[in-house]
Specification:
Distance between the termini: 63 Å
CATH class of the largest domain: Alpha Beta
Bound molecules: S-adenosyl-L-homocysteine
Number of domains: 3
Shape: globular
Number of helices: 11
Helix content: 25-40%
Structural class: alpha/beta
Strand content: 25-35%
CATH topology of the largest domain: Rossmann fold
CATH superfamily of the largest domain: Vaccinia Virus protein VP39
Radius of gyration: 23 Å
CATH architecture of the largest domain: 3-Layer(aba) Sandwich
Strand order of the largest sheet: 17-16-15-18-19-21-20
Length: about 400
């Protein structure tokens, strides 16, 4: 175990349980770094602050794991973190109509750099830190012991692969043991009574965005009779909810052709299953386009509902300023184009953009578009994606339901 001593005055965030410590806060590490290991973290005056994981090669050198000096740092500790996170989600295992949800949400569940989602009988893991890569076999074994999934598949988060020096690969675990990854079919699962299929190891994130579950149900409540534009639709989860809510028509736009084709497929299987109204196929259209450009060309007043769910526009704090401009511009154009009384569901999933920032961006947008906007609902990720107060970055998904008045 390393001993990491923090610079004078640089222990405040750590004492307040923020889990990340960057190189600038570290005064010394003993012994000298060779390979990643647990660390005892002390203040400049030598008192215990926390236990963590020290990795001199990670872009976050020290990741704090426990603030209890009595804890023992070993595999059992990691297994307990996994177990506790799963137990906290007990209610999800018996939720009617939903078999996809998040089991482990990284730092918010005290396990840095790992996200694990249940999809029916399978579990998908996304690894975004070397810590998670190293402990993956332990975490997979514990998930297997607790839940007996048919298979666990782990993929590297491409966004962090180079910063963390992570190999981009897919690892498969069956019966808790790592096996050779093989070509497999897709997995079918349900969210809020709607069927989905996700291709393993492909697609984005872990193949589906289960953080929007609650918000899709809210959007559905406003969709009746509306002409809906689902921008950044991916495989159409919002489209499916709008259809179930009685939308007159839904136009889905995304830059990914394969996602759009999959969207149509999912409309088909749900119409066939009687989950969405008959005639839904005819009411749905897809367009492969850059949504930021596409929205400029649409007819004024054509849509009475718009869903704006862009990808993460600010990956780091330094990108926040440009991202603010992009959020403002997207919302401004939507507000200019939407029919009077129209509903906009607008989102940001950038950790570096706070809820207040997003609100600022949409209020600038409304002012520039010359409209009034009412906030009808304030939206966030579901509770399987907890927000840890001591880790504000965990509040990454925020959104609003707006009514536009002119
Ligand atoms: N609303 C979706 C998730 C959206 S994720 C759901 O509920 O499942 C963001 C989507 O934006 C991805 O599908 C990605 O392919 C798409 N995308 C990224 N950049 C884009 C662009 N410039 N124009 C259109 N789509 C884009």
């Amino acid at each position: 175990m390393y001993t990491v001593s923090l610079n004078e005055g640089k222990d405040k965030a750590a004492r307040h349980h923020h889990p990340w410590v960057f190189s600038g806060a570290i005064s010394s590490v003993t012994p000298a770094f060779t390979s990643p290991d647990y660390a005892r973290v002390i203040s400049s005056s030598g008192d215990f602050v926390a236990y963590g994981w020290y990795d001199g090669k990670s872009h976050i050198m020290l990741r704090l794991l426990s603030w209890d000096s009595e804890d023992t740092m070993d595999e059992g500790f990691i297994r307990k973190r996994v177990r506790d996170a799963v137990v906290r989600r007990k209610a999800f295992f018996s939720m009617p109509g939903t078999t996809a949800f998040r089991l482990l949400h990284g730092e918010a569940d005290f396990l840095p750099g790992i996200a694990a989602d249940a999809y029916g009988k399978e579990i998908r893991i996304i690894v975004s830190a070397r810590f998670a890569d190293i402990f993956l076999p332990v975490i997979a074994a514990e998930l297997d012991r607790l839940l007996s999934p048919s298979l666990i598949e782990a993929v590297t988060d491409r966004q962090y692969a180079s910063a963390e020096g992570l190999p981009e690969r897919i690892r498969t675990f069956i019966g808790g043991r790592e096996t050779k990854s093989a070509e497999r079919g897709s997995v079918r699962f349900m969210e809020s009574g709607i069927w989905y299929e996700a291709a393993p190891g492909r697609g984005q994130k872990s193949g589906f965005y289960c953080d929007q579950r609650d918000n899709r149900n809210i959007v559905e409540q406003y969709a009746a009779g509306r002409r809906v534009l689902d921008l950044f639709s991916y495989t159409g989860a919002f489209t499916l909810h709008a259809l179930r809510g009685g939308a007159a028509e839904v136009d889905a736009v995304d830059s990914s052709e394969s996602a759009l084709r999959h969207l149509l497929y999912q409309v088909h299987i749900n119409e066939d299953a009687g989950v969405i109204p008959a005639g839904s196929r005819e009411r749905t259209s897809i367009t492969e386009a850059n949504a930021f450009e596409y929205i400029r060309g649409i007819e004024d007043g054509r849509y009475s509902m718009m869903i704006l769910d862009p990808p993460k526009l600010a990956k780091t704090k330094s990108m926040a300023e440009n991202a603010m401009k992009a959020y403002k511009d997207l919302n401004r154009v939507a507000m200019m184009k939407i029919a009077d009384g129209g509903i906009i569901a607008t989102f940001s999933c950038s950790g570096a953009i706070s809820r207040e920032d997003l609100r600022k961006a949409i209020s600038w947008a409304a002012s520039d578009a010359g409209v009034e906007a009412e906030i009808l609902r304030t939206l966030s990720a579901g509770e399987d994606h907890p927000v840890r107060l001591s880790f504000p970055e965990s509040e990454y998904l925020k959104g609003y339901i707006l009514r536009i008045l002119r």
